[in-house]
Amino acid sequence: MLSRLLTPRWVLAHLVVAALFVATFYLGHWQLTKAEAGGGAVNWSYALQWPLYGFMGLWFYVRMCREEVHRDPDEDEPGNAVVLYQKPRIDTSGDPELAAYNAYLAELNERALRQRADRG
Predict the structure, then answer these.
(1) Is the per-residue pLDDT at 43 higher than 80?
(2) Which of 120, 34, 52 is closest to 85 using CA atoms?
(3) Which residue, among 76, 63, 58, 65, has the nearest Cα to 1 in the 3D structure?
(4) In a domain, 49, yes or no
(5) Cα–Cα distance for residue pair 25/47, rounded to 1 Å
(6) Of 14, 27, 60, 65, which residue is the least packed, with the fewest Cβ within 10 Å?
(7) Which molecular function GO terms apply here (predicted)?
(8) Do the domain assignments include residue 96?
(9) Domain count along the chain
(10) Which residues neighbour 5 within 8 Å (Cβ) at sequence distance 6 or greater?
(11) 38 domain residue, yes or no
(12) pLDDT for 85-118, tens place per residue?
């Protein structure tokens, strides 16, 4: 199961996430040096926020990896389950123009369903 996380796409993603995680700490250190040099409250807040952004991104990425490991590999393939479509009810009471429009939409729906049945 862990072999799914070793495909070229995932390895590239691992490298990008690692680089971004390190970059957030570099940016936090940079903001800290600016704040210590008299940069003000904004620099102090960014000095704390950058590492938090890094940990938050890493947390989301770990969750994404865990979902990939526990995902059923066959769920991506189209199934042969029967999907039942309910024929839409046409409202004929009230406005005749609206009823004609609804009948037109129902006809389009029927055509689409027939074309789908012919293909599949």
Answers:
(1) yes
(2) 120
(3) 65
(4) yes
(5) 9
(6) 60
(7) DNA binding
(8) no
(9) 1
(10) 14, 65, 68, 69
(11) yes
(12) 666 666 667 788 888 888 888 888 888 888 877 7
